[in-house]
Amino acid sequence: MATVLPSFLTKEYLQNILQKYENDKTVQIQEFHCSPAVAAGNNYASMLLRVKIKYTKSGYNLEKSIIVKSAVADSEMAKSIEEYGIYQREISMYDKILPKFHKLIESIDDNEKLFSPVIHVDSKTSTLIFEDLKKTGFTIADRLNGVDQNHVNLVIQKIAKFHACSMVLMESSSEEFREFAKAPFDDSGSSLQFFDGMTEACIEKMKTWSGYEKYIEKIEKMKKWLPRETIKIYEDVSKQPIKVLSHGDLWINNMMFKYNEDGSPNDLLDFQISYVGAAVNDLMYFTLTSTNDEIKLNKLSDVFLQYYENLVECLTKLKYKGKLPTLYELHCQYYEKRYFEYNKDPKIDVLNFTIEPAVPPGNNYASLLLRLHIKCTKTNRRNNIFMKRIIVKTILSDPNTAKTISDTNVYVKELLMYDTILPKCQKLLHSVDDSDSFFYPAIHVDFKNKTIIFNDLTTEGYRIADRIAGLDQNHIELVINKIAKFHACSMVLMEQSNDFYPKLTDSIIKDDEIGHTFFKKMFKSCIEEIREWVQYEKYLIKLEKIYELLLKQGEETYMTSKFTSNVILHGDLWTSNIMFTYDNSNTVPENAILIDYQIVCYGPPVLDIIQFFMTSTKLKYNKFLDVLKLYHSELLKSLKKMKYQSIRPTLFNLYCQYNEKRFFEIFNIIVLYPIMVNIQTKDADISNVIGENENASKFRSQMFKNQKVSDKLKELLPIWDSLGLLDPMH
């Protein structure tokens, strides 16, 4: 079928444009031929033509290939598209905005092009004319397979610079961006037809798949509110911490790559859907539509980090006067745009929400914990407004620290616990009519982004006790009951099946990066503090020898004991990982919930009891056996109730195991306890616990100057020495 040309695309029209572009009135077009510039399926909103021109200039015969981009030939479709100012947006981008971006980039001696140079902008016919980049070696990547990391690196670098330029320009002249303030679609007319048509086509395809019935039902419900919820992604721009001019259509077909031995530079094309909005929208759009599965599923945080570093670098070079965005704000923006689908009621609308840290500094080191206050309403019942609070737990925003922590598998372990193992425990408790659970289920578990969402338990009266004061007998009894129940469930589950055993075998203490950057540094800081104490020289000498054996002896404590079966250890059982409810007096605890299952692993059950007793209770050291006896009693009750068939541990077994694993006391008091009772919360984050710089060294040092820490060490060092615990185990 012959290509239908726009009526204005004549020999005279092209000749006038070429004369102006080459600044030469001698240009005379001899002939031109048009063909589609892209294959079917590669562009929908515009007509793209490749025009090959033969012309003379100053007596010479020349040829040139250009790309003409204009409104679609179908007048009805063009009218529907122009409802949202699609063509005018792109005309304004090339005519007004992009030239200013180019000047900004040139002003910092950056020669990299952000966009394809335009030959002519014709606002009257909504037409743009470009050089044909294909002639210079540029090509569009494979839209079906998705791009790899090398391509992603280039795209992220470009879009970060694009966003940085927009932030600088908006800072000086926001009026120029007024026409980009509205979302490029709405929830009526042709937009609604598009949403409905695509959703219906998806549903029809899924009906041919076996086992997807429950998803079809949910998507059919989603169809009613999808347009409205999508538009919310573009709304409330004034409240966004990182507000930019978004490209709006950042996918493979709107980029061109040039491949050579030196790398793969690219150009960003197609600015029809540009709008002022959240920076994260372009990142989500690009990674979800255009990257390969490895990046899409496992590298999203890396993409965010790369974007952030490029954005801040460019803003700094451009001397941006506003507040530089933080990586934390970028992640918060992502959760704002991503995590509303957790609620299973499609009739709920989210009106707005705020984000704040979920815990004060010093209460959590290994994860980012956010509290979201969400204002909701039922659809069509705007007078029925209610509030919802949730907790979002995800990886740390600092990429280097997050990687160090992630290498220990703590994030994956907790995801496995809340997704699989804890629900099995819950089912087991229900089977024996025990409604008193030791944990609270998650709302949503997201393996892709290493994120878990919970109800905010503070709304139900739960709170964390004072980590510095320590817990009294009433609190202790509740915790021991819960940890015994958890251990019992793990023993019964292990008896039934060991499918998840391989994923929980490694302990947190081993000869790896976290061992050297965290555990050994804390131990070293302790030695340096004791070096200043009078008459503690003999302990100092012994601790220096232990320092060399710390990781080996610590790892051995987790090895299977000959005295009792292993359990799934909580692994981080201290005050900040336990929440309590209280009676009317607000002093006597009534219930307890164990939280934070990042450091779970198989190991001797006495390790959880040692850790809890040593770090979180007010009891004297000689009261440990009383707590161990209470634990044994509670454990046997649960095992009996659950009809555990294997040999049940005796109190003597546990006592022997305690003596076998007592080095764990030293590890907890020297490495962990100073962090748990730290009172200097200003710099209380994981980077200062494991860092190499002077600030980190000072932070570790001040923790050991805490009176509670020094008193505890001075009490226990003589006891440990008398028991031979300060001598090498081998």
Automatic annotation (TrEMBL):
Which InterPro entries is this protein grouped with? CHK_kinase-like, EcKL, Kinase-like_dom_sf
Q: What region holds the CHK kinase-like domain? A: 128-317, 452-641
- Domain of life, per UniProt, equals Eukaryota
| Protein name per UniProt | CSON013154 protein
Which organism is the protein's source?
Culicoides sonorensis
